[in-house]
Structure formats: C-alpha cells, structure tokens
Automatic annotation (TrEMBL):
Pfam families: fn3, I-set, Pkinase
InterPro entries assigned to the protein according to its UniProt record, in alphabetical order: FN3_dom (IPR003961), FN3_sf (IPR036116), Ig-like_dom (IPR007110), Ig-like_dom_sf (IPR036179), Ig-like_fold (IPR013783), Ig_I-set (IPR013098), Ig_sub (IPR003599), Ig_sub2 (IPR003598)
Sequence segments annotated as region (Disordered): 31-58
GO molecular function: ATP binding; protein serine/threonine kinase activity
Composition skew (Basic and acidic residues), residue ranges: 40-58
Signal peptide as annotated in the record: none
Organism: Timema bartmani
Domain Fibronectin type-III: 286-380
Record-linked PANTHER family: IMMUNOGLOBULIN, STRIATED MUSCLE PREFERENTIALLY EXPRESSED PROTEIN KINASE
Stated name of the protein: Uncharacterized protein
Lineage, highest ranks first: Eukaryota, Metazoa, Ecdysozoa, Arthropoda, Hexapoda
Family note: Belongs to the protein kinase superfamily. CAMK Ser/Thr protein kinase family.
PROSITE patterns: FN3, IG_LIKE, PROTEIN_KINASE_DOM
Amino acid sequence: DWYHNASCRSWYRRRPLSGAFTHPSRMVYPPGHVYTPEPTPERTPREPKEPRTWEDRVPSREPLDYEVGNFKSESHYQYGPDTYLLQLRDTDFPVRLREYMKVAAKRGPGYSLSLADQNYDWRTPVIRERRRFTDVMDEEIDDERKERINQYGSAEVYSLRRLRRELGTRLDGHAEAEAIIEYKREGQPPFFREKPQQLPIVEDQPAELVCYAVGEPKPTVQWFKNDQVLMESKRVKILEDEAGRSILRFEPAIQMDVGIYKVVARNKVGQTHARARLVLASTPGSPDSPEASEISDTEVLLRWKQPRDDGHSAVLCYSLQYKEADKVDWNDVANNIDHEFYVVRDLRPNVDHQFRLSTRNSIGWSEKGITTPLIKTKETGAPKVQVTRAMKHLQQMTESGGEITADEPISRLDYSVETSPIQWISEGQLTEKYSFVSELARGRFSVVVKGIEKATDKVIVAKLLEVRPDTETQVSREFEALRSLRHERVASLEAAYKPAGSSIAVLVQEKLQGADILTYLSSRHEYTEQVVAMVIMQVLDALQYLHWRGYCHLDLQPDNVVMASVRSIQVKLVDLGSAQRVSKLGTIVEQVGDIEYTAPEVINDEPAYPQTDIWSVGVLMYILLYWDIAIPCA
C-alpha cells in the first residue's frame, strides 16, 4: 500500500519536503489518509514603486570611521566663525578617492550597479576643509597684489603665509631622498636616445620601427603591439644593429600591422618605455588653388598652402601647370617644386592665364587641384617680380631639374661629441668655408643668418654673437650647453668660430626650416588638437634629454620651437643661451626671457628644479590651443 500510494500517478500526493527533518518515512502520506487542503492565503496588493534616480543609487558613505593602516593626515581642519572653507592641503586626495571609486565600480557587483548610471557625476566627491583666517591669509586686496608684483626680484618679496608654510603632496624631503638615492645608486637607468616615430606603411612593402636605448648595464628591449608581447615570425623580425639600436622590421608590412606599438627598455636599475603608431599611408588630398601675390608683364609669383590631407605621409613636392584662358591643353611648368611658391616666367603680356597644382608624397600623386580664377598679366614694360635671395636660390635649384627622391637617406647622429665636445676654432677665415645668403633673425646682441657650405652645398645656419664684457658670460654659457649635446629634438652645433682678436663669435648649426611653430601653424588651413599634442610630445622629448644631461632650458617659448621640416610635424629646440645646469635638489638661477613664460619659482628667486621647464610647456600648449597668453603680465 505504501508503494502503491507513492507510485507515479497523476493524483498521488506526498508530504511537504520539510517532513524529512522529522522522519524520512513521513514524506509519503500513509494509505487511507484524507487530505484537506489549506485555505488559500489572501492576496496582498503590491504598491507601485516610483523609479529610482541616480541619487538614490549612490550608496551611503556611513560609517566613515574605517581604520586602514596608519596614515598621517595633512589636514588642519578648524572650527569657528572666523574660518573659511578651502581646498585640502593634499589637493590630490579627492582625485585619488575618485580613482578608488572607479576601481570599486569594476570590482564589486553592488557598487558597480550604483555607479554604472551614465548620469553619475564622477567629479564627486569634492572635499574641502575649514581654516582660520589668521592661519590662511590667502586673500589679497588689490593694493597688496600690485605691491607684491612691483617687488618681484627684491629682498622683501612678500609671499603668502599659506604658500610659504604649507607643503604639497610631493614633499621636499621625498624629492631630496630620491635625488640622494639616485646619486649613490650604481649604474644608470635606461634612457631612449632615439624613440620610435609614427610610421606610415604601404601594403606589401617593407617597413621598420627603430629605437635606441642606453643605460648601465645595457638594457634589454622588448616590443609590444596593442599592449601584447610581439613575437617574431617569418615576416616580423626583431634585430639589433652594430650601434645597439633595436629594429622591428616587417618584411613586408600588411594592413593588419596598423596599431599602437610600445617598446620597453629594462635593466636592473629601472625601466622606461615609448610608444609609436603605425598608420596606413595613402595619396594626398588635392591642394587648393594657388594665389598670385605679384604680377608683371611676363611673370607671376604664385603662393599656396599645404594640402589639408597629406595621406599620413610627408609631402615631397608639387607639380604646377598653366594654360591661357582660351586654350584647352595644359602646359607643365615643373613637377619637382619642393617649396610653397614659384615664379612662372615667359608668359604673354596682357593675357589671361589659369594655374593648377597637384601634390606628391611617398605613395604617389594626388588629383589635380582647383583651377585658379583668371590671372591677367600686365602690359609690356611693367616692373619684374622681386624675390628674396633665399627664394631665388630655391627657385634655381628647382629649375636645375633636381629629382625628388621618396626615400630620404637616414642620417645617424654622432653621439661622440658628448664625450669629446666641440672646441673653439680660432684659425682660418669663416668666409672661405661658408657663403652667407640672407638674414633670418636679429636679437639684442646676435644675428642669425642662412649660409651654404661651399665644399658640399650644404645649407647651414650661423649665429653671430657680439662678445662684450656684459655678454661674454651668456655667449660662453650657450657654447658650453651646445658643444656636448646631441639629440634628434635639439638643434646640433656643427662648428664654433672665435677668431683671435675679434669681438665676434660664430656658432654654426644645422639648418632648420627657419619657421617657428606659431608661424608654421598660422600658414596651415587648419590644425587640430592632435597636431598640438604631437608638438608638445616632441618638446617634452627634447626637455627629457636636457634634464637627463643635467640642463634646464629656462627660456621655452614659441620662438625657440622651430620646424625641422615643413612637410611634417617635426620640431627642434633652439637658442640654449639661457640653459643652465640645475640639480634635482634645486639651484638658484638667473631670470631670463619673457616673464609670461617664466616659472613662478624663478621669478621669486627660489631654487629651480628640472621640472621648472614644465611651467613653460603648459604656457606654450595654452598659446597653441587658444592663441593668447595664459597669464597676461603688466
């Protein structure tokens, strides 16, 4: 009967499972048991719930008395009617707290739900502290502010009590300890003399990324793609040349190689890394129509700007064509123009002409650009077009038929000058070796001219400095800084002349394009934040090398950031006349340059550190983005 009662039939009944807690055999109803079902419970209506907002999802921050470790508090929180609510002395604490909250949002399931709302304000929490007015003294009336500005440089410089007594998050003791440890440490951490650069690639053609890391002991180099270790294969090779450069070679490159590459150099002292991007190159975009800046009877001076799209590859040259208004066929003028101007000659007087351009990069030629409006030459006998000596020289080189090669020869820097610096040359005539073409810039006691080395036709830049008792120190300081520096982002010194009995010293440097960064950007149709980011990254690379060698630039401004190439974003630092050796423990330096770009510690006659140059970098970046001085000075 028990088995029959528990058999699988549609109407069989078993006791509730809770019966197993008293006796297992009681789970099945005995034979003949009459079951009376329990009454149905009354239905309880559900109350409608209002939708929760993101404020309701933020978890409570109670309790706040967690004890995690023994942390020293830098807070001087005070109470009273004469207190003010100010930012924390540890200004980084709210930022760190927000980072902790972001990490917690990814780890905890409940916390992530509360912070996953896209409307959650990540600027919270904002933490402040109350301070007494007598301890802060952070408010200045207008007269006090003007008096303090007028007293810059004097012994009675007024400094705020809070700024004078309170320390930031990076304590001086910590920086001093780091400097002492580095001084006593054996060996040298890795440093990238040459970092990998953005590389445009063409499918089924070889390509390579190159870097040069030095250190003591010699660092090991490892390559990554998109933060994953890059392994060698039949097509991808990791090589090392005789100088110690690490080469990542693609034989050939394919489209899937596009991405962000990272190289890490390590030794027992430390490690460093650099990143570069591989992009897919294409033909450039069509250029805009040129403009006629000067017109004569048979000549027209045309000027134009670079195309908006260079196809991720530097522009090599331009092709120029013209035709008369009533003609159909176009005539080629030149297809090797490597500058943004050209004087078209042998035109018919008093006739309408039209012109158009096309652009070439390492991939190929672009489509023909927009045709100019009708440009009419003047009557016979009109004055000829006048150009500068430098423009005339470039035009002659183009008219001579020089070919433009897509693959420029790779020039390696000679780092031996760091151990064997350049010396003054006091014998021989400077004019016997160089011929000077034009003046590029003029300063208070110096002139920068463009020259040509007669033996090789190599273009150079010479800085002529007047050596006087009041300028001799600055001349010597600039020479001492340049004579032993070699970096891809710093203009190299090739020779230095100081004839005996002469009051003129000449510093011969490599020829740059001559245009500073503001002039170059103003000549473009447009530029983006990415262009500014590339410029600032290259400036930081140059400063990193100077700091590695123990120098501080101290006069970083747009005039000292010069284009090394007008075809692509390549800049170099020039004018190291203000550069001085600065210790990591701080060095008192002389204030030079414009006050708009000078760091506050230099203005206040306080010790300067290697990071002092970062203030000038911030001002430079602000100017490039907004074309205005960040902090106007009276």
